[in-house]
Amino acid sequence: MTSANPPIQPVKDLGFLGAGRMATALALGWKHAGLVQLGHCQAADPFAGAREAFHQATGFWATEDNRAMLRASRVVVLAIKPQQLHAVIGDLRGDLGSDKLILSIVAGATLPTLCTALGHQRVIRIMPNTPSQVGASASAFSRGPSASAEDAAVVSALFGSVGKVFEVKESLLDAVTGLSGSGPAFVCLVIEALADGGVRAGLPRDVAQTLAAQTVLGTAKMVLETGKHPAQLKDEVASPGGTTIAGLHALEQAGVRGGLMDAVLAAARRAEELGKS
Ligand SMILES: NC(=O)c1ccc[n+]([C@@H]2O[C@H](COP(=O)([O-])OP(=O)(O)OC[C@H]3O[C@@H](n4cnc5c(N)ncnc54)[C@H](OP(=O)(O)O)[C@@H]3O)[C@@H](O)[C@H]2O)c1
To answer: Quick check: do 2-172 and 183-276 share a fold?
Structure first.
């Protein structure tokens, strides 16, 4: 398991298949990081609303012609929904020369499935997450049979420019999906619940929400920057008979710790199911 951030070289001729939420989040993050530049990035999507939203948000071109995008791109990000995968990539087989590097962010879609459906082996499977759009993503990837070390370096540069990136064994990618892929939704639920608690205690909604989000951001930075175990940082806040231990006791009684573990496992299992369907 390695975490690598090689020097930044702009990636030329990058295309997205699907111009939805994740394509937009990644395009925005890479544009801000200077990794992808105007004239060297486009998306393809049959849905006019998605094309317009992608273009408005990123400034990059969006077409309804998948093949035109494919012909113009050397690096192609598959950013369609798992349920759409087989219908969409089947008709791309003929246009995939060995010069094309395929990056799939499709949850659950395994490398063997992708390589067989595409008739192409130069594929890398990645699980990023939506904080890509603010440069704070958590991603992990695995290489397909013909993806080289240079291809892995391109992926590390792209996903390292918008956050942290690890190369892992493919068998671990469903677990990554359950933790960091779906994690932003779980953390948003925690932020919303903390804010509701603040409002219940008398705080104005906007103040409560900002305090809750900043507390999550600050705590995450402490864990990443100090390297201390979260349990130690937790104990550093909880003084004997104090306010925090009273709150922690309520969380333990509510089974929050077990609930969060179950959420990651349920999401990981669903990724596995999607991969099999
Ligand atoms: N969102 C996340 O947090 C996240 C995180 C990690 C990985 N992912 C993965 O990223 C992928 C995209 O997720 P998303 O949230 O960005 O979904 P999304 O917003 O629905 O984007 C998918 C886009 O693909 C379009 N599409 C449908 N058929 C197509 C075709 N034939 N050719 C080209 N585009 C087509 C969809 O149009 P319609 O809406 O009209 O169908 C939609 O605009 C998924 O596989 C997901 O597992 C998502």
So the answer is: no
Name the closest-CA residue to atom 24, ligand 1.
18
Query: pLDDT tens-digit profile of 114-169?
Result: 999 999 999 999 999 999 999 999 999 999 999 999 999 999 999 999 999 999 99
| CATH 1.10.10.60, domain 2-172, yes or no | no
Instruction: Tell me which of 1.10.3730.10, 3.40.50.970, 3.40.50.150, 1.20.1250.20 is the CATH number of domain 183-276.
Output: 1.10.3730.10
Question: Residue 191: CB within 6 Å of ligand 1?
Answer: no
**Distance, CA 18 to ligand 1 centroid (Å)?**
6
Measure the CA–CA gap between 89 and 67, rounded to whole angstroms. Answer: 11
In this structure, the residue with its CA closest to atom 36 of ligand 1 is 18
* Pair type for strands 137-143 and 123-127: antiparallel
For the Cβ of 118 lying below 6 angstroms from any atom of ligand 1, the answer is no
Query: What DSSP string runs through 158-186?
Result: HHHTTEEEEE--GGGHHHHIIIIITHHHH
Helix (H/G/I), strand (E/B), else coil: 3? strand
Domain ranges of the chain: 2-172, 183-276
Is the CB–ligand 1 distance for residue 155 below 6 Å? no
Q: Does the beta carbon of 19 lie inside 6 Å of ligand 1?
A: yes
Determine the distance separating the centroid of ligand 1 and the alpha carbon of 98, expressed in angstroms.
25
**pTM, full prediction:** 0.92
| Ligand 1 neighbourhood includes 84 CB (under 6 angstroms) | yes
